[in-house]
Amino acid sequence: MPRTVPEIAAENGFRLRRWELTDRELLREAATDPYIPLITTVPAPYSDAEADAFVHRKWRRTEIGTGYPFVIEDPAGQAVGNVGLWVGELPLRGCATAGYWVAGGHRGRGVALTGLNAVTAWAFGELSVPRVELYVEPWNTGSLRTAERAGYRRETPVPAHQEVGGEPRDMWRFALP
Question: What are the residue boundaries of the N-acetyltransferase domain, all occurrences included (predicted)?
């Protein structure tokens, strides 16, 4: 597995790239979202120091071989979201896990779908990952639709799969192939 995050061209002029310290504005917007900080490591409340620490953690995950966190950048060069591929359990479970979020002001434009399609194609092509899973809370209709539109199959509910806001939450497991 590569120890760097590549740049990946995506549909409609979008691209995936590694996180940079200059991505503070995306993190500032994401930190104000009522949900993103609960289910991710996005710092809330926001501070520049916490934003920088977040980016350094993202870099470290790739360096140690556990994952590939990408910024989703729109055709104008603006950072609008995040998509990640986590490969740390690949040797044990035979699958990687994907996840995504989009800052509130950029939702409804297919950003998550574009990012998920690009990272999934990269996982199956470049990395030869045999299976990619993702997990979505049952109420999150936007993420459920994104997973389905990307071709992921809804498999089974997984009780208490992930802690969200300090409480275990049930999730739907989706997978390809």
Answer: 14-177
In tens digits, what is the pLDDT along the chain, a chain of 177 residues?
889 999 999 999 999 999 999 999 999 999 999 999 999 999 999 999 999 999 999 999 999 999 999 999 999 999 999 999 999 999 999 999 999 999 999 999 999 999 999 999 999 999 999 999 999 999 999 999 999 999 999 999 999 999 998 999 999 999 999
Q: Which CATH superfamily includes the segment(s) 8-133?
A: Gcn5-related N-acetyltransferase (GNAT) (3.40.630.30)
**CA-to-CA distance for 125 and 121, rounded, in angstroms?**
6
User: Cβ atoms within 10 A of the Cβ of 143, count?
Assistant: 21
DSSP state at residue 44 = S
Helices 48-63, 24-31: crossing angle, 10 deg rounding: 110
Q: Name beta bridge partners: 70.
A: 18, 83
Element spanning 17, H or E: strand 15-18
Domain boundaries, the chain: 8-133
HSE-CB for 10 with a 13 A CA cutoff: 25
